[in-house]
Amino acid sequence: MANRGGIPRVKSESVTVTATDVRFNFTSDARFARNFSGFVAVWLAQAIPTGTTGTLPVVFSSVASGDQAVTTLDNAAVTVNNISGTGIYIAYYEASTGTLQLLTGLA
């Protein structure tokens, strides 16, 4: 059964661009638990800086759970080109595979 306790929500606190990826950073209590499978409301509160390479992959990062790759259909990496802007995105996290799939907001 998914989302027994409701749909969790997380909000990014900052965005960091490196040569290898774009990281949306979340507070230390934003974690994807091993025993959780279900929908997640993700508020991307910061814009990716203008001029960022569009093919860079997007990663969600927090002190509590480390880095989490963000995917779309067929396990393809979500890239800067896929992020439409700031706002609420819906994702699905599958604990058995550690997969976080973005479902909305894809360009």
What does the model show?
The chain is mainly β. The protein is built from no helices and 7 strands. Strands 5-4-2-1-3-6-7 form a 7-stranded mixed β-sheet, with no helix packed on it. The relative contact order is 0.24.
Shape: globular
> How many H/I helical runs?
0
CA distance, first residue to last residue = 30 Å
Kindly state the mean pLDDT as a whole number? 87
Work out the number of β strands: 7
Oligomer: single chain
Main beta sheet strand tally, sense and closure: 7 strands, mixed
Based on secondary structure, the structural category is mainly beta
In N-to-C order, the SSE pattern is EEEEEEE
In terms of DSSP E residues, the strand content is: 35-45%
Poorly predicted sequence stretches spanning 5 or more consecutive residues: none
Roughly how many Å is the radius of gyration? 13 Å
Give the arrangement of secondary structure elements:
Elements: E1 9-17, E2 22-26, E3 37-44, E4 58-62, E5 66-69, E6 87-94, E7 99-102
Parallel strand pairs: 1-3, 2-4
Antiparallel strand pairs: 1-2, 3-6, 4-5, 6-7
